[in-house]
């Protein structure tokens, strides 16, 4: 069989992900793995339609497609995202329709499920039958057990293609037709005071829903928000994955993005991401902003800021995008995280949403309230803590300094009081009579310390 491998790594063949694909290829010599460079040559693909068509022809000739990519900020790299957009923009879905597909990715497992779910949904949007994701840690290929697991996946993938089963789609179809929005009611203005507000958006047609929503939002802020269009930032390209920024947060690019990021984005108190849905996410331009922000490493640069999301398109039909917003908000430790969209037939309803959105962002910024961290933030912290403390600390030296300065190396073995208490309780519970006594009053024991807090509050 012939497998078309779409290489979504900006590093081309110098990719950890592609090493796993090569391992698959070496152990399946009877099958052809056609390596198609995508992310590393995205500029040529955009400009040269004949080159794009040649890629589509190679996909048409394949029996199945393997999406191969590293994770960049919880999703595929922006360059790969742009390639996916081009497939739909150039009506090239027919080359994928009916084929079997799977994905292989490498990461440190931080939100890898979001990227896998995104590719799963994209494959089904292309009319493909998706067989599953192989989501590996970037060092897994060095381990014998993981090599065996990879070969098991390879065998499963190829054997399933041979058997040609029917695979039920799991993602609801997205309807991209949104009713035109024209403001229908007077603006209810709010006073931002000295708060600095930045609205980051694509460059859109003035008559688009998103442009009109942004205009109304800025009116609500009494025109005091700065509207930054992504093309004006002047990025020369997407993140290259070189990790040279890890030592001192200095990006290899000298296009001014790092300065803009620090002096404009991070200098703002309220940041609003305003964009249209492209396939199952925002535009590749937004993804490029997120990827390039990695020059800050694993430091939560937005911590304490207020972030809002204004979306034009079928947001409620895009669970991947909504989960990305939730994960980003939680893991960055930001205020608010409100989301609004133009999903309504009633323009007045959208007007009210925008006005309420603006007011709630101001309230959030003034309150300083950051919600307690949930699974996204807690798990992310542990993953990055262990990674930076371990082998990656030498490369990501800026992260190490930040974690050390902010006492984020909070390993459980350093919690001596809890360890002593646990050891003492373990010894007590080893005595049958004591164990029975404790278990009989377990519910009371669980709230004893909390009751003392309540008693102290009443004094």
Automatic annotation (TrEMBL):
InterPro entries: Flavoprotein-like_sf, FMN_Rdtase-like_dom, ISF_SsuE-like. Pfam families: FMN_red. Coiled coil: none annotated. Residues 1-133, 196-313 form the NADPH-dependent FMN reductase-like domain. Signal peptide: none annotated. This is NADPH-dependent FMN reductase-like domain-containing protein. Keywords: Flavoprotein, FMN. It comes from Methanocalculus taiwanensis. Its cofactor is [4Fe-4S] cluster; FMN. Belongs to the SsuE family. Isf subfamily. PANTHER family: NAD(P)H-DEPENDENT FMN-CONTAINING OXIDOREDUCTASE YWQN-RELATED.
């Amino acid at each position: 069989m012939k497998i078309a491998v779409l290489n979504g790594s900006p590093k081309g063949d110098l990719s950890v992900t592609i090493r796993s694909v090569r391992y698959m290829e070496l152990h399946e010599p009877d099958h052809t793995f056609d390596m198609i460079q995508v992310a590393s040559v995205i500029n040529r693909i955009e400009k040269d339609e004949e080159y794009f068509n040649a890629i589509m022809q190679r996909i048409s000739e394949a029996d199945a497609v393997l999406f191969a990519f590293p994770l960049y900020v919880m999703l595929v790299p922006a360059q790969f995202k742009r390639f996916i957009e081009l497939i739909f923009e150039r009506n090239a879905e027919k080359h994928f329709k009916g084929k079997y597909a799977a994905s292989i990715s490498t990461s440190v497992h931080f939100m890898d499920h979001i990227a896998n779910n995104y590719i799963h949904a994209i494959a089904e949007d292309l009319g493909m039958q998706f067989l599953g994701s192989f989501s590996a840690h970037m060092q897994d290929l060095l381990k014998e057990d993981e090599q065996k697991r990879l070969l098991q996946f390879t065998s499963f993938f190829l054997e399933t293609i041979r058997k040609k089963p029917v695979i039920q789609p799991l993602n609801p179809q997205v309807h991209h037709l949104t009713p035109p929005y024209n403001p229908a009611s007077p603006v209810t203005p709010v006073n931002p005071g000295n708060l600095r507000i930045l609205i980051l958006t694509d460059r859109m047609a003035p008559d688009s829903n998103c442009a009109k929503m942004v205009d109304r939002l800025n009116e609500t802020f009494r025109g005091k928000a700065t509207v930054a269009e992504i093309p004006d930032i002047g990025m020369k390209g997407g993140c290259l994955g070189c990790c040279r920024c890890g030592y001192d947060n200095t990006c290899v690019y000298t296009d001014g993005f790092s300065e803009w990021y620090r002096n404009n984005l991070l200098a703002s108190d309220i940041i609003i991401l305003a964009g249209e849905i492209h396939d199952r996410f925002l535009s590749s331009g937004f993804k490029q902003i997120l990827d390039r922000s990695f020059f800050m490493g694993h430091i939560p640069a937005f911590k304490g800021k207020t972030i809002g999301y204004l979306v034009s398109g079928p947001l409620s039909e895009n669970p991947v995008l909504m989960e990305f917003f939730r994960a980003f908000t939680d893991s960055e430790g930001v205020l608010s995280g409100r989301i609004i969209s133009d999903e309504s037939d009633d323009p007045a309803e959208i007007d009210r949403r925008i006005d309420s959105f603006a007011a709630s962002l101001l309230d959030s910024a003034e309150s300083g309230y950051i919600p307690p961290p949930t699974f996204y933030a807690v798990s992310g912290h542990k993953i990055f803590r262990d990674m930076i403390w371990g082998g990656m600390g030498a490369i990501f030296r800026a992260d190490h300094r930040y974690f050390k300065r902010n006492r984020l190396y909070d390993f459980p073995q350093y919690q001596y009081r809890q360890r002593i208490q646990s050891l003492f309780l373990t010894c007590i519970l080893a005595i049958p009579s004591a164990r029975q006594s404790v278990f009989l009053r377990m519910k009371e024991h669980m709230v004893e310390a909390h009751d003392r807090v309540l008693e102290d509050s009443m004094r």
